[in-house]
Design goal:
Radius of gyration: 30 Å
Structural class: alpha+beta
Organism: Bhargavaea ginsengi
Shape: elongated
Helix content: 25-40%
Protein name: Sigma factor regulator N-terminal
Number of domains: 1
Distance between the termini: 110 Å
InterPro entries: Sigma_reg_C_dom, Sigma_reg_N
Keywords: Membrane, Transmembrane, Transmembrane helix
Number of strands: 10
Mean pLDDT: 84
Oligomer: single chain
Pfam family, one: Sigma_reg_N
Number of helices: 8
Largest sheet: 5 strands, antiparallel
Low-confidence stretches: none
Length: 316
C-alpha cells in the first residue's frame, strides 16, 4: 500500500513538473514577444532622438544646403520645401532646387537623399533642366573657364549664334568666363543692366582645375545678389565674400558628405581656404541672367572670353 501511494505521489509530482515547465515555456515565449514588440518603438524613439535632439538632421540639411549654394551656380533652396521622414535608424530628406531665369525662380532639380544614421547611402536626383552641366566635371568640360586654361569643350561662338536666334521675348541664363581675374564689384559695374547671380572664385586650383595632389576639382563660388530666402546661408549677409569663406570652413568637417551630395566629387577645401585667406577674392567667371537682347549686347565686352548659354525661358 505504501509503495502504491508513493507511486501515485511520484506521478503527481511528475505531472506538476510538466505543467510548470509548460507555463515557464509560455512565459518565456510571451516575454520574448513582449521584448521584441518593445524593441521596434524603442528603436524608433532612439532614431528620432538621434536626428532631432542630436542635431543630426539639422547638420545634414545644413551640409546639403551649403554645398549646393557653393558648387551649383545660380541655385537656391526653399526652407519650406524640405521634407524629412524617419524610419528605423535612417532618415529620408527631399527638397527642390531652383534657378533664377530673368526675375523668376524656376524649380530645376529634385533631390531624394537616404541616410542611415549620418551616412548618405542613396542619392536620387531628377532634373528639369533643358541644358544640363556635366555630371562629373573634368579639366576641359567646365562651363566656367579660368583665363589660363585652353579652349573648353563647348563652342562659345555657336552659343552666341544660338542666343542671337532666340525670340526677343525670352530671358536667358549665361555662363561667362573672363579674360582675367576681377573683383566681383567690378564685374557688376561692367554689367549694370544684368543680374549677376553667381561668381566663380579663384582658389588657386582653377588654372588647370587640379588640386595639389592632381585631382580634378569642382568650381566654387557664391551668389552675388542679396538673398532674402529664409533657408539661404547668405540671408542678411553683410559680406557675401566673408560668408562664402566661413561656409567653406563650416563644410570642412563634413567634406566627404558634402562631396557626396554635390555632383562635384573633389572639393579640396583645406588648400583652397588657405589660398583665399592669403590672396583674397577674385572671380574668373560669373553666371548672369536677363533679357535676351541685353545679354546679347555683352558680346563685344572686352571682359568676356567665353560664353556658355544656360537655361532659356519665355519672358514672364
Amino acid at each position: 500500500m505504501g509503495s502504491y501511494n508513493e507511486q501515485i505521489g511520484s506521478a503527481n509530482k511528475t505531472g506538476l513538473t510538466g505543467k510548470m515547465r509548460t507555463v515557464s515555456r509560455w512565459k518565456l515565449i510571451l516575454s520574448t514577444f513582449t521584448i521584441a514588440l518593445m524593441i521596434v518603438p524603442t528603436s524608433y524613439m532612439l532614431t528620432f532622438a538621434y536626428y532631432a535632439f542630436g542635431t543630426k538632421s539639422t547638420t545634414l540639411m545644413d551640409t546639403a544646403s551649403k554645398v549646393l549654394y557653393l558648387t551649383e551656380p545660380n541655385t537656391a533652396l526653399e526652407e519650406m520645401e524640405f521634407e524629412m521622414e524617419f524610419s528605423l535608424f535612417s532618415m529620408d530628406l527631399s527638397f527642390d532646387q531652383y534657378k533664377q531665369i530673368g526675375s523668376e525662380l524656376y524649380p530645376v532639380r529634385h533631390y531624394d537623399l537616404h541616410f542611415v544614421l549620418d551616412n548618405l547611402v542613396d542619392k536620387k536626383m531628377t532634373s528639369n533642366l533643358d541644358r544640363t552641366p556635366p555630371k562629373y566635371p573634368t579639366q576641359t568640360n567646365q562651363w566656367l573657364v579660368h583665363p589660363a586654361q585652353g579652349m573648353p569643350e563647348f563652342n562659345s561662338g555657336h552659343d552666341w549664334q544660338v542666343l542671337a536666334g532666340l525670340p526677343d521675348e525670352t530671358v536667358v541664363e549665361a555662363y561667362l568666363s573672363f579674360n582675367d581675374l576681377y573683383k566681383v564689384i567690378d564685374v557688376r559695374k561692367e554689367f549694370p543692366g544684368i543680374d549677376v547671380v553667381w561668381a566663380a572664385i579663384y582658389t588657386g586650383t582653377e588654372d588647370e582645375m587640379l588640386s595639389a595632389d592632381g585631382d580634378v576639382v569642382s568650381p566654387l563660388g557664391y551668389p552675388v545678389q542679396p538673398d532674402r530666402t529664409y533657408w539661404s546661408p547668405f540671408r542678411d549677409s553683410m559680406s557675401h565674400e566673408e560668408t562664402f569663406l566661413q561656409l567653406l570652413k563650416e563644410l570642412q568637417p563634413y567634406e566627404e558628405l558634402a562631396a557626396e551630395v554635390s555632383s562635384h566629387k573633389n572639393l579640396k577645401l583645406q588648400e583652397r581656404i588657405e589660398f583665399i585667406e592669403q590672396n583674397g577674392f577674385t572671380a574668373y567667371g560669373a553666371v548672369i541672367t536677363g533679357p535676351k537682347q541685353e545679354v546679347e549686347a555683352l558680346k563685344d565686352s572686352q571682359m568676356i572670353r567665353h560664353m556658355k548659354l544656360g537655361e532659356v525661358k519665355l519672358w514672364n
